[in-house]
Write a structure and sequence with these properties.
With about 160 residues, the chain is an alpha+beta fold. Helices cover about 35% and strands about 35% of the residues.
């Protein structure tokens, strides 16, 4: 009798466990990533950045996150949007150069929350003559429904003097 009771209890425990585990989970909805649309969105951000920089109204720059970090050549990293904007403002006091950006490639995370951009930049002087060109890499995160730059760095392709 004791053996039958043990078998019955074990069977009930097994059935209870199986019943608990048979709950079907709804499949996660697949996130549809439109890489070309994201590339256009990132290019629009780059165009807005260039327009803002070229106008000299850097206080209105919405490109960088408050906690962004950027790596410029020959200097320590700039940490935070305020430090980045201050650097760019100082840069503008010494020149009338214009900058432009071209988004070449984007690599989008599976959930669309992050984008790595590879691009090309060109700086021209007041006569539109190129004075610096190079490549850059930027990391964007989607925050409040919009992509914002959290990290970036660039490398000039001009020969060292």
């Amino acid at each position: 009798m004791k053996n039958n009771l043990t078998k019955t209890l074990l069977a009930l425990c097994f059935i209870s466990l199986m019943a608990c585990n048979t709950e079907k989970k709804a499949p996660a909805e697949a996130v549809v990533i439109d890489k070309e649309a994201i590339k256009k969105e990132i290019q629009a951000k780059e165009n807005e950045f260039a327009e803002t920089y070229n106008s000299g109204k850097l206080k209105e720059i919405g490109y960088y996150a408050a906690d962004a970090k950027t790596f410029y050549q020959n200097r320590a990293p700039l940490v935070g949007r305020d430090a980045i904007v201050a650097f760019l403002e100082e840069d503008l006091t010494n020149n009338t150069n214009k900058i432009s950006f071209t988004t070449n490639e984007v690599f989008v995370s599976n959930d669309g929350a992050q984008v790595v951009e590879l691009g090309y930049y060109k700086v021209t002087d007041s006569t539109d003559a190129p004075i610096n060109t190079g490549n850059y890499m930027s990391l964007f995160e989607k925050r409040d429904g919009k992509y914002i730059c959290v990290r970036d760095m660039s490398a000039s392709d001009m020969p060292l003097e």
